[in-house]
Design brief:
This protein is an alpha/beta fold and 299 residues long. It folds into two domains: 76 residues, no CATH class; 199 residues, Vaccinia Virus protein VP39 (Rossmann fold, 3-Layer(aba) Sandwich), CATH 3.40.50.150. The chain is built from ten helices and eleven strands. Strands 1, 2, 3, 4, 5, 6, 7, 8, 9, 10 and 11 form an eleven-stranded mixed sheet that branches. Helix 4 crosses helix 5. The radius of gyration is 20 Å and the shape is globular.
């Protein structure tokens, strides 16, 4: 028992384990995650419906969405953004790890004659010959990826963008990191039975890595016949750090906002969104030459 408790409370190294499939492909948890997606009043799997509507309005205006605009929605879930953008005439491709969410999204697309192409795949492995005017990665999905995985994604974005295309993604900020604290707790049937339909004890250990600006919530789910662990990693960014990662992938930071609904950027925002495009400078340069901090809100 002592060794088991030691394991539960053991601190991993940053991004040591990748357990996305435990959350998104498990029969029980994927069903619970879909229910959160579709609850328009909450900000759990997706943001609330009112925010999504505002966000889509801003995206449609900012990027001049019209008939024929080609969009890739990475981490599309049940298509909450994809469907709204398709209704504006966009040609949308949605990619998501969760088979349950993709099946729901496909049903909506078929029923409403939206013509969306949905791909059930880990977006780290997704590739296509298509090229896009706009690439989305929303709900701070980028933060859940390790440095190596982030470079894979940014390289993919650079390759899949049309020459004048844009990427819109959002991340958690350093002020949000400062507000997080290390903690440990356990609960019977933690989160109202989220992890299993069977009786279980859920342990959660939150570890904070000050140098790397990383947080992990390490979940240990102990059932009668099995024990498993799920790691929810989150990288927190300064605008300069995110700009640097983009520049290393040949992408240029063109605008910064407090959210993906276009709210003006504030240094105190708990998250921020960026618009990036293909850089004019060489990808090997450490900074992109076309980003001007004095015009950080973008146009």
């Amino acid at each position: 028992m002592f060794k088991k408790l030691e394991n539960i409370n053991e601190r991993p190294t940053p991004f040591q384990y990748y357990t996305a499939s435990e959350l998104w492909t498990d029969e029980h948890t994927s069903k619970r995650m879909l229910s959160f997606h579709l609850d328009g009043a909450t900000d759990v799997s997706s943001r609330n419906a009112a925010f999504i509507n505002r966000s889509v309005e801003w995206i449609a205006s900012k990027f001049s969405i019209c008939g024929g605009t080609e969009i890739a929605d990475f981490g599309c879930g049940p298509g909450l953004y994809s469907a709204r953008l398709a209704k504006r005439g966009a040609k949308v491709t949605g990619i998501d790890f969760s088979k349950r969410s993709i099946e729901y999204a496909k049903d909506v697309s078929t029923r409403e004659h939206l013509g969306i192409k949905y791909v059930n795949q880990n977006y780290l492995e997704f590739d296509t010959e298509d090229r896009f005017d706009l690439i989305l990665m929303i709900m701070c999905d980028f933060c859940a990826l390790s440095p190596t995985q982030r470079m894979v994604m940014l390289g993919k974005f650079q390759r899949l963008l049309k020459p004048s295309g844009s990427v819109l993604l959002d991340v958690y900020s350093l002020p949000a990191f400062e507000q997080r604290e290390e903690a440990a707790s356990y609960e019977l049937n933690q989160f109202n039975g989220f992890w299993s339909p069977n009786k279980y004890f859920g342990f959660v250990n939150t570890f904070k890595y000050d140098e790397e600006k990383v947080i992990v919530d390490k979940y240990t789910i102990v059932e009668a016949k099995r024990t498993r662990q799920v790691y929810n990693w989150l990288q927190y960014f300064s605008p300069e750090a995110l700009e640097g990662e983009c520049a290393d992938a040949g992408l240029c930071l063109k605008g910064i906002y407090s959210d993906v609904a276009g709210k003006p950027y504030s240094t105190q925002s708990r998250e921020f969104a960026v618009v990036v495009g293909k850089a004019y400078s060489h990808p090997a340069q450490s900074r992109c030459l076309c980003y001007d901090p004095a015009h950080a809100q973008g146009s």
